Amino acid sequence: MIRLEDVTKRYPGGHEALAGLSLAVDRGEMVFVTGHSGAGKSTLLRLIALIEHPTSGQIIVDGQNTRRLKRRHIPAYRRQIGMVFQDHKLLYDRPVFDNVALPLVIAGLSHRDAAKKVRAALTQVDLLHKEKQYPETLSSGEQQRVGIARAIVTRPKLLIADEPTGNLDPDLSLEVMRIFRRFNEVGVTLLIASHDIALIDQLGCRRIALANGRLHSEEEEDIVSEYAGGVAVDDNRDGWQP
Amino acid sequence: MKSADALAAPKSPGPLASWAIRHLSTAVGALGRLSRKPFASLMTILVIAVTLALPAALYLLIKNAQSISASWDSALDFSLFLDADVTLEEAGRLRDIIAQRADVESVTLIPADDAMAMFREQSGFGDALDHLSVNPLPHTLVVRPSAANTEVSMGLLNEELSNLPETDFVQVDTAWVQRFHAILDILERAIAFGAGLLAAAIIVVIGNTIRLDIENRREEIEVTKLIGASNAFVRRPFLYSGFWYGLGGGLTALALVSLGLALLEAPVARLAGLYNSAFATISLTAAERLIIVGAGAALGLAGSWLAAARHMRRIEPH
User: Fold this and answer.
1) Which chain A positions have a beta carbon within 8 Å of B235's beta carbon?
2) How close does chain B come to A60, measured CA to CA in Å?
3) I want to staple A9 with a disulfide (CB 3.0 to 4.6 A). Which of A18, B72, B93, B116 is the partner?
4) How many angstroms separate the CA atoms of A60 and A63, rounded?
5) In 3-state terms, what secondary structure has residue A34?
């Protein structure tokens, strides 16, 4: 689903966020990207979302080489990917329903068809009863779930999330991860950046550890990891069940 | 991954209908956004209205002046003042000779006594004139040229009438009418130029309003682009805002011009009455009204398009 080949991202001023990174995420996988802040997690996701472009190397998403994508095709490319952000990135001047409907409106769906899909997405994050409320009247966890509903309302095959639990307490974080897990079970590929090692451990998903823009084989402190085939892999542990 | 394509093809209405619905809802949405800050929107619309009403009103003024002077054109008579020693009989014979010319429609003889009586009646010098022992006024022929005359043949007629032995002098009132026409032509051109400048001003006013609007909604634009909105999608509501501003300005301009006209109608009628004229103010035709409103809408669209094209591209998610 996602393949990076020798990807380097260097910012003006010389800072190298990613240094020759290669990795692969298979279709239907749920993978976490971990590492300290500044390790390159966000940069990786921003490159996949085409918010930024790599200095060198190839990024192939669903068989499509992003380097060959013309500027005017970027919107259509982004519509194929669900995105969840740490700061939710909701529009605060309109109610929850309209926020979730936005990707459908952009895709040109009729109001009736959109309404059905919006309600389905809100049901999945258990917020259907708050569809008429404005985002700022919701708690941070609820706002994040609205953001997730917006990301999945178009039923994308790939969902990327940048620190989706960054501002949430452990219980809410687990709740959000449980929602992600449910999508994964119906075939959605997920790539989630997070530094919440304990939580990821509970889920028992594969982990890609980054440090200084490179794959990191030596895991921090108590986490044991293996390094195989250019990809950092963590065992699938059975410590957590949805 | 074909989910986006599948979404783009709605099931129920046809593509054209859904396109229309999408535009309609964007248009209504833009209108709603303007109505949520009524004062600011009203100010913008008023600026546009005044800017449009100014050339429209001047144009109307010229149009009215032209219609007045047009009626003068057909009343360009030659006043042929005869020598003092020409008798009334001689004047009568001369009238008959001139009346036979092809380039003359009619000739009226005003005998000196009638002229004196008229002058006494209209000038208010009645008593003073009683002291005159002789009538100083000559007999006069009022020659009305036929309508087929050109400027050249009018000049020729003037020359021939002046050269008649009985003629003292010929007075023609063409000169000042022509000057008046020349002045109107200049004004018309000046207004056309001014209207061009004011149109540019409207584009700048709307462009600036939309630019501020875009800046205020920068975050929203970023988020919308982030989840896959094209430039066209993000631009559309702003184009509609500009369109509404322009349309509102055009309609208000029309109201302003009509108001001005209504205020002037009675005094103009009174003035016309004093001149024994049936002149009535000419209003804008339906086509001209359409042009004003259409110009407003088009300029609004142009202004917002420029602003959107310039500023929208720069706003990218980061």
Assistant:
1) none
2) 13
3) A18
4) 6
5) strand
